[in-house]
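Anyone up for a design puzzle?
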């Protein structure tokens, strides 16, 4: 399974990329709005660091505006993926941009019916938001299970990018269901490393080793 980080922070992306486990980056207007500087230059720098798919989202809501912004985003770098919302105009823009060979990530997906539409429109990625479904007392992972089954029935090549992951269990459950990608904030990747038995075990190994060295000295 591929692991993406969901952030616009170049500092955080650099530090996670240095670990060698980062496959791509997702951004959205809320995340990019937090970062200083020009958003195009920031996205370019992110592409140079990650050398994998980097999603940049359109802010237009009409078909023509989405196409124009989509072309602008795609021009930033060959790694750029154009993110469009799951609306009528978004699905139409997905079909048009995909037809031109531009990769599209259809975002704000909250139902299997919506995921089916995105696949039919040639999306490279579909982004179901599990955390936001959990927030309204609806099991987000059930949606992933449904999309995995539907895409596999028809051999759609659209990759399932599980978004709005809020904790390591979301990532593990997504992996168990066979989702292609999970994207999460930097803090969740940090949490994935943590286990108290790892720390306790390492401390004991090092203490035992130090004792041996003291005897030899
Ligand atoms: O990739 C979508 C993500 O940014 C949404 O996450 O935590 O705001 O629901 P969240």
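Challenge accepted. My sequence:
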């Amino acid at each position: 399974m591929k692991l993406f980080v969901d952030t616009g922070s170049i500092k955080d992306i650099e530090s996670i990329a240095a670990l060698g486990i980062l496959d791509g980056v997702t951004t959205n207007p809320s995340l990019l709005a937090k970062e200083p500087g020009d958003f195009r230059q920031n996205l370019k720098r992110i592409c140079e660091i990650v050398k994998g798919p980097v999603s940049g989202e359109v802010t237009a809501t009409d078909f023509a505006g989405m196409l124009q912004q989509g072309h602008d985003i795609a021009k930033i770098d060959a790694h750029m993926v154009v993110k469009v919302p799951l609306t009528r105009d978004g699905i139409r823009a997905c079909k048009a941009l995909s037809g031109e060979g531009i990769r599209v990530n259809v975002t704000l997906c909250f139902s299997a019916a919506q995921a089916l539409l995105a696949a039919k429109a040639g999306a490279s990625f579909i982004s179901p938001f599990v955390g936001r479904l959990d927030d309204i007392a609806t099991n987000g992972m059930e949606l992933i299970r449904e999309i995995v089954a539907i895409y596999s029935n028809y051999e759609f090549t659209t990759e399932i990018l599980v978004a709005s992951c809020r904790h390591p269990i979301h990532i593990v459950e997504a992996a168990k269901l066979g989702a292609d990608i999970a994207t999460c904030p930097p803090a969740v990747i940090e949490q994935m490393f943590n286990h108290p038995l790892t720390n306790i075990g390492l401390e004991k190994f090092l203490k035992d080793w130090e004792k041996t060295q003291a005897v030899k000295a």
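A detail worth pointing out: The radius of gyration is 20 Å.
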